[in-house]
Design goal:
Layout: H1 37-45, E1 49-54, E2 60-64, E3 67-71, E4 76-82, H2 87-96, E5 99-105, E6 110-116, E7 119-123, H3 129-145, H4 150-157, E8 164-169, E9 173-176, E10 186-189
Antiparallel strand pairs: 1-2, 1-5, 3-4, 4-8, 5-6, 6-9, 7-8, 9-10
Helix pairs in contact: 3-4
């Protein structure tokens, strides 16, 4: 376990989750406040989201999110993963404490990557149902625009709430991931401000 991940645990079982507590009373710097409004609108609308992590040998793993919410005021993003299909990603987050998400608009390939070194894990709750339903409906539309069926989308994105883990984090780095000459360019970073 890395020093940054010490004290963090995000398990894939349905048992209670131990987590870093992001204090509501203490302001947390987030790149969301400085992110281009077009990216924020894209994420809030609901586009496909990939969640990535890596193991101690820096071998990456990735899983498709089945839900995503953004709270710009709090500077937080929450993504939902299936315990089953996201097991490797969840295990890596538990051991390394880092997360990267890529939000992609399929029709334009416009994409943004957000990263954080602190992740809060919990089981999905009944109060998440509305956000999960909105995300599924929006992602269905995104996939239909590029020729996929709604059934395809439901196979990829829809899961029972009981098998979902919510991962909440405060993004501290943002990168342009839209294909082209600016791909990989930092959009904002708080790494130097800590």
């Amino acid at each position: 376990m890395t020093p940054a991940a010490k004290g963090r645990r995000c398990t894939t079982s349905s048992a209670e989750f131990a987590m870093d507590h992001l204090s509501a009373s203490k302001p947390r710097p987030s790149v969301l406040a400085d992110l281009d409004p077009q990216y924020l609108a894209m994420i809030e609308r609901g586009v496909p989201v990939l969640v990535a992590s890596c193991n101690a040998k820096l071998r990456p793993s990735v899983s498709m999110a089945v839900g995503c919410t953004l709270d710009v005021f709090a500077g937080e993003m929450t993504v939902f993963l299936s315990r089953r299909s996201g097991a490797e990603v969840l295990g890596n987050i538990a051991s390394q404490g880092c997360i990267a998400v890529i939000c992609v608009e399929p029709i334009s390939h416009r994409a943004v990557q957000l990263k954080s070194g602190a992740v809060q894990c919990r089981s999905a709750k009944a109060s998440d149902e509305a956000a999960l339903a909105r995300y599924l409906a929006s992602v269905e539309e995104e996939f239909v625009q590029v020729g996929h069926t709604r059934e395809f989308c439901r196979c990829v994105v829809s899961r029972r709430r009981s098998e979902l883990v919510a991962l909440t984090f405060v993004p501290d780095q943002a990168f342009n991931q839209t294909p082209g000459p600016q791909a990989g360019a930092a959009l904002s970073s708080l790494a130097g401000n800590r």
